Structure formats: structure tokens, C-alpha cells
Amino acid sequence: MKKDFVHERRNKLLDFINTQSRADVAELAELAQVTEATIRRDLILLEEQNLILRTHGGALKRDEPSIWQSTTLQERMALQVEEKDRIGAYVSLHLVKDGDSIMMDGGSTTLAVARQLTVRKNLLVVTNTSTIGELLVSNKNNRVIITGGELTEGTNTMVGPSTEHAIEQYRTDKAIVGVSGLLLEEGCFSAVPLEAEVKRLMILHSRETIIVADSTKIGTRAFCFVCGFQSARTLVTDRNISKTARDSLERTGIEVIIV
To answer: Which domains does the chain have, with CATH numbers?
Structure first.
């Protein structure tokens, strides 16, 4: 209960800062009915998650990057950490079984899935990131194929013609794919065209696709279209998804799993 209260308080602070564009510690303390010392700790955490900019005595709204710009893997790993861990645990326990063959693209949420896949054995994994490959290769007789290609600074993913050619050679049971944005009437999006093509090919060459995305991605625009909802069987997201968004997604035929 205490954790839920803290989470709710920080969301309230974030909403206020985003609405007003700026706020000082005193008014935030009055808003949340806590001490200024507590507010300062909250602001430190919110800044570490790249959600605000702290100033002397307060905070500023952090402007969102343009839809064609991507953030680094390290930046994304600091956001929605608990939500991504729950997504990873659910996928590993309920949607993947021993002996599965899987394609996984690079990203903070797919990395959270990979960390939880230690409960599985005898997996065959095709991935375009060595980070995921190194996690899985030493565990319980797993086999890992890393695609090769041009290594992208900041995201640690491999992209380009060599990557795409490698993916085209394989057929797997499942694709586990992360996205930068998910629009209810359109489908899934990526900020980077070359990464979008990798995701498309993984989806195309797998029998079943599992989209993993925390709820902040729902309704978020990104530059490059990846796939419509008819190409994905399942979306695993967190409990902050709105009922309206869930209902809209389920009308497309995709199964929405909330964790």
C-alpha cells in the first residue's frame, strides 16, 4: 500500500509539473501534503527517469523529443522499471515454454524479458543485440544466434542489410518485439527506420508475435510504422493502461494481457 501511495504521489507531481510547465518545491509539498525534503527526493528520482528537469528550488517540464528521435538504452532502462520487470516475468512464465525458438529485438522491455528467461531451458534465440545474447547463451543449454550487422550507438542493436539478410534465413515459433509507440487506430511504431525493418522481419518470420510495451507507449507516436494489430497475437502491458485503450485494442482482435 505504501509503495502504491508513493507511486501515486509522484504521478501527481509529474502531472502538475507537466501542466504548469514549472513548479517550486514549496507548492509541490503543499499539493502532495508531504515535507519539502520528501519532494526533493521525489524530484531527484523523476529526473533520474528523464521525466523532468530539476532547478534550484523546483522543477521544469521536460519537453518530449521529436517522434523521429530515439533515446539510449540506458535512458530507457531507467523508466518504468517495475512495469517492465512484471512484463518480463509474465512473458517468461506464461508465454514461453522450454524448447521454444524465439526472435527478440533489442530494447529495454525485451531486455527485461530476457533477464526473466532464466526459468526456461533449451531455447533457440535469434537476436540483433549481443546484450540479450550474452544473457541467454550460458543458461540451461540455450542456443543463441546473433545476427550481425551495423552496431547502433546508444541502443546496442545491430541493423542494416546484413542484419535483415540473417533474419530472413530463419523461421521461429515466436517473435518478442518491443515498440516505441502504439496508436490505437493504426498499429505499432518505431522511432528508427532500420530498427522498424528488423522488427517487421522478425514478425514476418515467426508463427506468433508478442508485443511487449509498458502503458506509456500506448497513444505515443513514433516515426516509422512497424505493423498493424492483425500481425500481432498478443500485447503484454502494465496495469496503467486505460479501459478505453484496452477496449479499443481488443476490438482489433489482439489479446491484451495486463500485469
So the answer is: 2-61 (1.10.10.10), 73-258 (3.40.50.1360)
In whole angstroms, what is the distance from residue 154 CA to residue 4 CA? 32
Q: Is the pLDDT of residue 76 over 90?
A: no
Give the residue from 131, 85, 125 showing the smallest Cα distance to 109: 85
- Amino acid letter for position 225: F
- Is residue 19 scored above 90 in pLDDT? no
> Of 107, 117, 226, which Cα lies nearest the Cα of 158?
107
> In the chain, what percentage of residues exceed pLDDT 90?
66
Question: Locate cell 523461421: which residue?
Answer: 171
Specify whether the CB–CB gap between 237 and 214 falls below 8 A.
yes
pTM for this one? 0.75
**In what side-by-side order are the strands of the sheet with 181-183?**
181-183, 187-190, 224-227
Cα 69 to chain center, whole Å? Answer: 16
Q: How many residues in total does the chain contain?
A: 259
The count of other CB atoms within 10 Å of the CB of residue 113 is 28
| Per-residue pLDDT reduced to its tens digit, 221-247 | 888 999 999 999 999 999 988 888 999
Phi, psi at 46, each rounded to 5°: -65, -35
Residue 214 · residue 191 · CB < 8 Å:
no
Using CA of residue 210, residue 211, residue 214, residue 215, what is the dihedral sign?
negative
